[in-house]
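ingest -> validate -> predict -> emit
validate: passed (alphabet ok, no gaps, 312 aa)
predict: started
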Amino acid sequence: MRKWVKNITIVFVSMNLIFLAGCLQQRPLEKLGLITAAGFDLSKKNNILGTVVYQQFDPLQKNVTKKIMEQAKTSKGLRQDENLQTSHKLVSGQMRIVIYSKKLAQRGIIQLIDTLNRDPTIGNMLYVTISDGKAVDLLTKNNIGKGSNLGTFLYNLIKQNVEGEQLISPTLHEFNHSFYDVGKDPVLPVLKLRHGDIVISSVALFKNDRLVDELKPDKLFFLKVLVDSYKAGSQEIPLNAKEFKPLIIKTAGHREREFHDRIYMTIDNINSSHKIKVLDKDKLRFRVQVKLKSRILEMTEHTGNRPCRLWQ
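emit:
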């Protein structure tokens, strides 16, 4: 009797599995357009100009990368209109990076970010960035080859600088954490076209979800030290030359030179920690203590217009 009941149970479970498998929506890869990068610009009449870069697969030829531009009031409206321009169904599961123009970011981007958060196919490790100029120009007027995967290229551009500790990680997860946390605001990299090449030109500083200022590359080290902790990386920093004059090693053949007011030092293997203490809540005065441990790679002394290497 028990064996008979057991057999019926196995058959019933098997039928359910077959039924569920038959109900799953099948998506042949050849019929999909895999979005790898998306850009958003503020257009006329408060419309949004959306640009997507997607890949389509054809067994008879190499992978094809295509781009679509469309205008609408919402990001979902953009997706509907973009699908009208392609024979492949556009999907977001492989999206690597999203780019918002400065003008759009200055007005606020949380509504568009919220759309990304509500899409279950988009991962939290997606990179969020800002474009210096129009995002559509960044995605369409670059020197990246037609056969290249632009989304993967931009993702790796950001990733290797994050891993080298030149940038603070700009993932969707980090953006949400900084936006919704008390006392924190998002920080995102700014991408720019330079002679047809895409480069990281600065870092955008946000107040809530609005872009309010930028930091140039020479200031990124100080931002990283204040909001994050170094575990590696390298950096060139300027120092007061007079304070280092007694420490200069005088070797054979050394002759006295007049110091420039700055010595430039390159350090690596940086390990940092910081403490921030509030001194005055009304006037927002803080005391910041930063501890750095690193190795000196190189120092320079200026003699006229020519830098002279002291040691390496």
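The two ends are 85 Å apart (CA to CA).
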